[in-house]
Amino acid sequence: MRFLTFFLVVSIFYLTACRNNGFDNSPDIALQFSTNSVIFDTVFSGIGSATRRFKVYNPSDKKIRISEIRLAKAENSKYRLNIDGFSSYAATNVEIAGKDSMYLFVEVTINTNQDMLLEQDSIIFLTNGNYQDIKLLAWGQDVHFINAQIIGTENWNKDKPYLIYNSMLVDTNQVLTLEAGTHLYFHRGSRMYVAGTLIINGTLDEPVILEGDRLEYMYFDVPGQWNGIWLMNGSKHNNFNYAEIKNAVIGIQADTLADTNIPTLTISNSKIEHHSYAGIYAQGTTIAAFNTLIADCGYYALALTIGGSYEFYHCTIANYWQNTFRDSPSLVLNNYYEYEGQAIIRPIDRALFANCIIYGNKKTELAFDKHPEGIMNYTFENCLIKISDDTERNENNFINTIYNQDPIFVNTDNYDYQLDTLSAAINKANIDYINSYPQQLTYDILGFERLINQKADIGAYERKNN
């Protein structure tokens, strides 16, 4: 009797378990999806896209078996699927447990010389005789493809973008000129090495843009997507006008002093933003900057190290970095380095900041790393600076300085560093510098005239009242 009872209990349990673990074969079953379409931003010709993913949900309490998942164009599709770790254009008998889900991954490659610029397809799901689909859509972009190349004297223009893989080098004594509207995309880990000369001839309406190759909107302010521009030993006479250098590790690294009479880098009307380490990292070089914004950097916006000679006029250095903790100031000056336990002193012959804003979200945004036996000649004239109370200052180095007054930018969250109406920087510039450099400073970074009322604002942006 006990054996019979035990047998009945086990049988009931077994039948119940089988029924609960069975498949839902209802013809009314419908999968649920986290999206009804997968859209790719512009895909470069011949280069695979970033991977997109979406979820497929089983709404039933029971398991379901998806008889088929496939691309509508099958082996002729430009898309690729990854299903349960396997890359293919189709899969069969894919199971999803009750109230569970699975991820599907999609990539696409378009060759614009033979494919459609607009590539469409769909993913078809067949479950218990029911068809469902997810739309796929991608745009192709033809590019000049630069892969670990050495570049001689050339002119690049805006006919189509340039995509740099595995870095590039502007060779010694060669000149690469980027004309107005030229757009350069750099793949992760790539860098532009410049042993010769780089000329950027952007305009207000058609700046030259250098950035990472992730085109999705969510990446527009993500730092560290490429390694940046490196002006190497021997590089000289580099001139950037209306350049936008974005999303690198170091926007511009300059390590060269090739000509004592002409700056290694002259930069005007440019924006250097969203860099994981520094906007400009200079080592014993010469830089002259006008109407330039350096902003949103993980360590330093501007690091002037191992000596050199520097001039910055009407520049805005604004660092409200939010991605990680930042403990370093926006601007640092340094005149030595350590080698085998010894201090090697390199003088800063000149560091002039005239009519500049140096501000951010740290207690101090200016620091000096000075060897007591070395030379560090610096002047801040008519500048607005955020600086700690214990920083040494005197009237010979800080002339007509505004300390720790918020410049009141329009919107730092949206990276808008124009001056709001009540900014302390309004009408506080020394206009002698504008008169001394009329070609560079008569107009601000947005093309607005500075001296309409014979007064001018500090920083790269001139406030315009309605």
Notable traits:
3 helices; Immunoglobulin-like; disordered N terminus; 26-stranded parallel beta sheet; 466 residues; 40 strands; mainly beta; 2 domains; five-stranded antiparallel beta sheet; single chain
Topology:
Layout: H1 2-20, E1 32-33, E2 37-44, E3 52-57, E4 64-71, E5 79-83, E6 86-88, E7 90-96, E8 101-108, E9 118-127, E10 130-141, E11 144-151, E12 154-156, E13 162-170, E14 175-179, E15 183-186, E16 191-194, E17 197-201, E18 208-212, E19 228-231, E20 238-241, E21 243-246, E22 250-254, E23 265-268, E24 271-275, E25 278-290, E26 293-297, E27 300-313, E28 316-319, E29 331-334, E30 336-339, E31 342-345, E32 348-354, E33 357-360, E34 366-369, E35 376-381, E36 384-385, E37 398-399, E38 402-403, E39 409-411, E40 416-419, H2 431-436, H3 438-441
Distance between the termini: 97 Å
**How many individual helices?**
3
Strand content: over 45%
How many strands, which pairing sense, and closed or not: the largest β-sheet?
26 strands, parallel
Please compute the radius of gyration using only Cα atoms. 30 Å
The general outline is: elongated
Identify the quaternary structure here: single chain
User: Percent of residues in helical segments?
Assistant: under 10%
Would you tell me the structural class of the helices and strands?
mainly beta
Ranges with pLDDT <50 over ≥5 residues? 1-20
How many individual domains? 2
Number of strands: 40
Question: Kindly state the mean pLDDT as a whole number?
Answer: 91
Overview of the molecule:
- The chain is mainly beta and 466 residues long.
- The chain has 2 domains: 32-140, Immunoglobulins (Immunoglobulin-like); 143-441.
- The protein is 6% helix and 47% strand.
- It has 3 helices and 40 strands.
- The strands form 5 sheets. It has a 26-stranded parallel beta sheet that branches.
- The longest helix is centred in the N-terminal third of the chain and has 19 residues, at 2-20.
